[in-house]
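DATA SHEET
Item: assembly model
Revision: 1
Owner: S.N.
Input lines:
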Amino acid sequence: MNPSTRAAPIFYQCNSCAGVYLPVQDDGTLYFHACPPQTANPRDENIVQDLVTLQVTIKAEGGGRTEVPGPPARAATALPPPRWRWTGGELVSECPTVGHHAKR
Amino acid sequence: MATFKSIAEQLSALNDLETSGLSPNVIQPTFNVTNVNPPTEVYVTTDDVVVVAGWNSAPSQTLIVTVRFLIASGPTILGQYTYTLPSDRSFWTHSIPMTNGYMLAVTVDLIPTGGILAQRGQCYCQCNIQRQGAAPQIESFVLFSDYVSADLSPSWPSYTSISSVSGIGAIRTISGTTPAAGAGLNATVPTNARWRWHHIYFFYQASATVATRQVWLYFTDQAGNIFYYYVSPTTQAAGQGYNYSFSIGLGFQVQAASSVMTSLPIIDSDGGWLMHAGANAMQAGDQISSPTYAVEEWIDPGT
């Protein structure tokens, strides 16, 4: 699918554990949320199937779920800034404290 | 040294012999046109059905079953049947009624309707002949059992019958549940699936509360029994954010700046089995985010 025409993903927040998840993954496969151990009134969306009627239901409804815009924003300091930059001729320090690091 | 002639040259030479009347023993082949033996051993009647069944996780897939059949009165007929498959790995089954005659071939093809091509490991298909009316239906003739995917269409009589957890599986990534602040990470293998964990990634942001965090990760079976437990030798102080990567193939843990790369043994988990990650001294404001798993996946019925 063309990314420019892809619909915005729909996230859900579990009312039992407050986890946020994408029920349909980027590749279209289904995701089945299950609460962590020790969660009160846990939700488990994994399926169970009646062997005779083949009807499918989820294992446990728990406290239900609520549609949300997305997971909490990730910290901006996820990756450290580079300390050195290669200019083609020499390594240039980008450390805020000039001269803090010795050149190798 | 023998010299070889082309087929055209040999036919021409034979023709010359015949027309000259000097033909020695040219044997003309003949073909039976009556009482011809059937090409297969599989004779079915109106009491039989072809049953196509399986499990599927690939989205937007249509299964096409093609049956070639020699009916008792002589002609060969071809039937095609189309089924839309569920993608939640639930069991599905479809029956195709038969008439009196010989089965010549059965083939299943998987056609994507949404642009996603199915990999091996996503749609496992069983095809057999069952006698109607018997309960339970144990009187069956297995035609084939194999994955059907964008690059493989199992068929009979050139059949394969293999287990669903054999061979290579589907390679896929999963965006997991981002837990609430202060809560651990949790991933459960879906019903009727088997996962081999290749890589596990998440980002752990420690809050400003002073404590020495130590990330752990463990796996359990469906009953909750822990069979693998890992504790990172790296500790995290207040305010620090670390990337954690667990990968098959790494020999030992390495750390570079705020990234921790750790080895992961080969762990196969069935449906309902659990991966859980958190930290010692985890604080209420600590946040695990961007959980992403790369797994190899098979259909594993009954888990």
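QC remark: The two ends of chain B are 68 Å apart (CA to CA).
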